[in-house]
Amino acid sequence: MDQRLIEMLVCPLCKGPLTLLRE
Hints:
Blueprint: H1 3-10, H2 12-22
């Protein structure tokens, strides 16, 4: 499975803030 897919399943709410920090 794609790592991004796992992140969405494990922590969908964290995806937003994490994306902002990475960008």
